[in-house]
From TrEMBL:
Family indicated by similarity: Belongs to the LysR transcriptional regulatory family.
InterPro entries tied to this protein: LysR_HTH_N (IPR000847), LysR_subst-bd (IPR005119), WH-like_DNA-bd_sf (IPR036388), WH_DNA-bd_sf (IPR036390)
One Pfam family named in its UniProt record: LysR_substrate
Domain HTH lysR-type, first and last residues per copy: 1-60
GO molecular function per UniProt: DNA-binding transcription factor activity; transcription cis-regulatory region binding
Keyword terms: DNA-binding, Transcription, Transcription regulation
Name of the molecule in the record: LysR family transcriptional regulator
Gene3D superfamilies assigned to the protein according to its UniProt record, in alphabetical order: 3.40.190.290, Winged helix-like DNA-binding domain superfamily/Winged helix DNA-binding domain (1.10.10.10)
Lineage: Bacteria, Pseudomonadati, Pseudomonadota, Gammaproteobacteria, Vibrionales
Domain of life: Bacteria
Length: 301
């Protein structure tokens, strides 16, 4: 290729400011060097990229075509440079606490990315319910947490990672499985097996049904999702679980998602950390790579 990243950076800066002199200041170049780089780029490409309107520079049709492509190249070059810089500098152990749903379905992909791109970082993972993760962050057991739902404690800082939702499930042989819709009155008559109080899933469910149903027949409460799935699939119970935890079982036909129009149980999965903590490059790296991992993906569900 005949053009250089420096020439593309000059082009991008002039497009940003509409001025050669301001672009030169941004890039810490002399005005003559900036003008020369731009002239060389236009000569190599054989097309004018700007129209000179007095002291202002306006993009031509060719310049507008080039600009997004130049930005992509420059951003990729910056990521390459930062990646090598981070790989060299970032090392050590980070203690990560995660609640059950993200730990099972999202954290493994995140750890794989960190292992590949930042091989000197070691992640110690603790899997606990949401409230225990928050307490662990506050008690300095974890440098960073991943929780289900919101945390309203002002000692905690929170950043949304992605979103998911809960659904009511039954066995394929359950009487409600044949219904196109299930009413709240029918839900009140059913036997339920649910996550234990204090879990993110249970808090979201309780909050949603609080003003809709007077009393539920909660038969059992367990911490482990596989136990709840098996009880529902083999018995006459209902449960409310994250879609991520039951997706494959619904596709296989072992479980059925019930349509309850009144229940909209969306929630967030978020990173949390102490609001007063000192700078932590490892935690910042985990958050940054986690957000990048989800970028461009559809929301979890």
């Amino acid at each position: 290729m005949r053009y250089s990243l420096k020439q593309l950076a000059v082009f991008d800066a002039v497009a940003d400011f509409g001025s050669v002199s301001m672009a030169a200041d941004k890039l810490a170049l002399t005005q003559s060097a900036t003008s020369m780089s731009l002239a060389q780029l236009e000569k190599m490409l054989g097309r004018p990229l700007f129209e000179r309107q007095g002291k202002q520079m306006a993009l031509t049709h060719w310049g507008m075509w080039l600009r997004p492509k130049a930005k992509t190249l420059l951003q990729d070059a910056q990521r390459i440079e930062m990646g090598f810089y981070d790989q060299h500098l970032l090392s050590g152990v980070i203690r990560l606490g995660a609640s059950q749903t993200p730990a099972e379905h999202l954290v493994p992909d995140l750890i794989s990315i960190i292992d590949s791109d930042f091989p000197e970082i070691r992640i110690e993972l603790g899997v606990r319910r949401t409230q225990a993760v928050i307490s662990g962050v506050l008690d300095y057991q974890y440098d960073l947490g991943i929780i289900e739902g919101r945390c309203d404690d002002n000692r905690i800082q929170q950043e949304v990672w992605c979103r998911d939702h809960l659904i009511v499930v039954a066995a394929a042989h359950h009487p409600y499985a044949k219904h196109s819709e299930v009413s709240l009155a029918q839900l009140e008559q059913a036997k339920w097996v649910l996550r234990e109080p204090g879990s993110g899933t249970r808090r979201t469910f309780d909050s949603c049904v609080h003003n809709l149903m007077t009393e539920l027949n909660v038969w059992r409460e367990y911490e482990h999702v596989p136990v709840l799935r098996s009880l529902v699939a083999q018995g006459s119970y209902l449960s409310c679980l994250p879609y991520l935890d039951v997706e494959k079982h619904i596709e296989s036909g072992h479980l059925v998602a019930l349509n309850v129009p009144e229940l909209k149980m969306e929630r967030t999965l978020s990173f949390v950390w102490r609001a007063d903590r000192a700078e932590n490059p490892l935690a910042d790296c985990i958050r940054r790579e986690g957000l990048r991992m989800m970028k461009g993906r559809p929301l979890v569900m």
